[in-house]
Amino acid sequence: MNNLFKDLEANGEKALKIIKNHALSPNDQKILKTWGINDAANLVGKSRQTIIDTEEKGLIPKAKTKKDTGRRFYTLEDINLLRKFYSTLPSKPIYSSPCVISVANFKGGVAKTTTSVHLAQYLSLKGYKVLFIDCDSQGSGTQYFGLVPDTEVKDEQTLYSALSKKSKLDDSHPTKTHWPNLDIIPANLSLYAAEFELPIKHYQDSNFNFYNILKENILCLKNKYDVVIIDCPPSLGMISTNALYASDGIIIPMPASVVEFSSTIQFFGMLNDILAKIGNKQYSFAKILVTKFDKTENSQTLLSIYRKIYSDYICMSFIPTSEAIKKADTNMKTIYEIDQSVVAKKTLDRVKIAFDDVNLEIENLIKKYWDNR
């Protein structure tokens, strides 16, 4: 019995390795899909014919073609090069700081990680330079980027050193991902130790501002990124407080469920108490995002109530329940990474539009933040 949990952990790690090998075969690494000429034209913001004509004139490199069909295809790096050529590559205004967004709720299972990872990938797909910070010691967000938290992530790669004041973040700290312009500060169980160490330091030194560490460290990276997305742990501990204090905006995922609604109300109360104790914190935006929406009568009723009560604080778009999300998750991928070989085109298009709508709404909030600055 003494070895029960040790055996469960060891066997679980073996199972996770099998799942990862299946999802990442045959190269044992995540590779981003490519886009056809029509999708590339939409992403660049120019017509298909304009891009073809420019290629024919030799002003840009000719697109790669598939051997079996002869059709053009573009990597995201290719698309960003086209954006640079046509001056359609987005970025934060000159001299502006990156917009820092926390995706937070102290309840687990509300789609925080799903929301934050898809938002980060959407912004990278649009051409922004993005940093994804995984603040959850379980490392769910980290796994979406092909890393197993406690076997492939070193403690020094995480926020642990910065939170424990052993070092500061710098340009060399973030880890590159398979998404161009999207870096990650991954997580592992070392973050769990920080939750114990920070209260001790605060007890020993009353002038120690435990809540300001992450904000100070993000400032060290302000010239490198347009947007910073923070995936918060399912708690309101020391790390979550750091994330919320460092943020310019908050997205609060909330499923269309009475139980989840009740829990989120408690989260609002606790958040208010914490922020009141650490000082007057102002946000550019704070939005509730309805998740796991299944279009049943019960969900429709709750959504209607949410919109009436939180008219100024609720996203108009929502994240639906979908088999496509579950299938993508099984393959350690997101909706922006899977293709029609995994999910039927109609289903995939429908759920992708839903994520695009949500993320476009948040992108507009980011632009408004920069305008106000």
Give an account of the 3D structure.
- With 373 residues, this protein is an alpha/beta fold.
- It has two domains: 74 residues, Multidrug-efflux Transporter Regulator, Chain: A, Domain 2, CATH 1.10.1660.10; 274 residues, P-loop containing nucleotide triphosphate hydrolases (Rossmann fold).
- It contains 15 helices and nine strands.
- The strands form two sheets. It has a seven-stranded mixed β-sheet, sandwiched between helices.
- A hairpin with a 5-residue loop joins strand 5 and strand 6.
- The N and C termini lie far apart (59 Å).
Total discrete domains: 2
- What are the segments in which pLDDT stays under 50 over at least 5 consecutive residues? none
* Order of strands in the sheet with most strands: 5-6-4-7-3-8-9
Q: What would the average pLDDT be, to the nearest integer?
A: 90
Largest sheet: 7 strands, mixed
- What overall geometry do the principal axes of the alpha carbons give? globular
User: Termini, distance in Å?
Assistant: 59 Å
Q: What is the helical fraction, as a range of percent? A: 40-55%
- What CATH first level of the largest domain would be assigned? Alpha Beta
Which features characterize this protein?
Multidrug-efflux Transporter Regulator, Chain: A, Domain 2; seven-stranded mixed sheet; Rossmann fold; two-stranded antiparallel sheet; 373 residues; alpha/beta; 2 domains; single chain
